[in-house]
Amino acid sequence: MMNKVTGNIILVHKGALGDFLLAWPSFLSIRSRFSKAEVFWHGRGEFFSWLKPLGIFKVDSMTARSLDSLYSRPEWPEKLIGFTVFWFGLDRITVPQVHPALFYLKGIDHHLPRHVRKAYATTLQALGIPFRHDWHKAWNKLFDGSAGKRQPVLIFPGSGNSKKNWPLKNYIWIYEQLNNRKHDVRIVLGPADRHLRLDLQEINPVYCDALEQLQKLIIQSRLCLGNDSGPMHLASMHRVPGLVLFGPTSLARWRPSGLKTIKSREACAPCSSIARIECAEAKCMSAIKKEQVLAILCNMLVKQKKPAFLS
Q1: What is the model's pTM?
Q2: Cα(125)–Cα(131) distance, rounded to whole angstroms?
Q3: E runs forming strands in the chain
Q4: DSSP element (H, E) containing 254
Q5: Which of 22, 56, 85, 130 has the smallest number of Cβ neighbours within 10 A?
Q6: Which residues face 36 on adjacent strands?
Q7: Cα angle vertex 19, ends 243, 231, to 5°?
Q8: Contacts of 134 (CB under 8 A, 6+ apart)
Q9: Low-confidence residues of the chain, pLDDT below 70?
């Protein structure tokens, strides 16, 4: 089917960091399949540094406006004639436009509890585009660099949805316990975590405003702890060991490759396969015992003569 593609290609993805990283292997696969085509990107600008080395370019402003017009316009924009558009989303087709040059890829299949990355891969393969199963090796070849000796333990207490978060007091307790055991441990806050500043003033957290800074911190870290969130997916991409806490979101769909996980034992968890959480209070996250988390982390650190990554 895809043998008929003769024009250039546009990749569209409007999601957050974790969603983008789960889609990156598919971007790699499309770029590899259509090696002679020019491939362009329309999405969050801060993610472009992970696409540029693949030979992918940013769309110009007029093309970007034409793509955004697909949310509502009934006809195919003249500016997009000659392009094939691969539009990545989750479970909803947000673009009503039907056109032979537009392919909408959904990461969530409500009939099968499969991983988001696998859902994208299955769609690509159905379109005749081989999936790059060596995507992890390709990522590390492009972006890992030389980490040297990895030292700090990083704690990421936030996420894109506060209802996915383990109680902050538990993260502070973990910080104190590891610090008392003479580990170099740091709590890291991103732009979405500013509301946590006052509660962490005495700990002096690391503020990370740029993805380049976040990536460097993770590459140089020994171990990461956090919620189902973008930083933990980035740790997974860089093969940094970590422990991820899951409650309202589906472990089967969102698990970062190779990281250890704790899934809440609350009967209501997970309550959402697509991270649209409607409960007033995420009691499933509070049900995860801090002693269990600490025990797993300590066990990982004891075994860790040098960082090892789960296969």
Answers
A1: 0.92
A2: 6
A3: 8-13, 39-43, 56-58, 83-89, 102-106, 153-156, 185-189, 206-207, 223-227, 242-246, 260-263
A4: helix 251-254
A5: 130
A6: none
A7: 35
A8: none
A9: 1-6, 145-149, 198, 272-276, 305-311
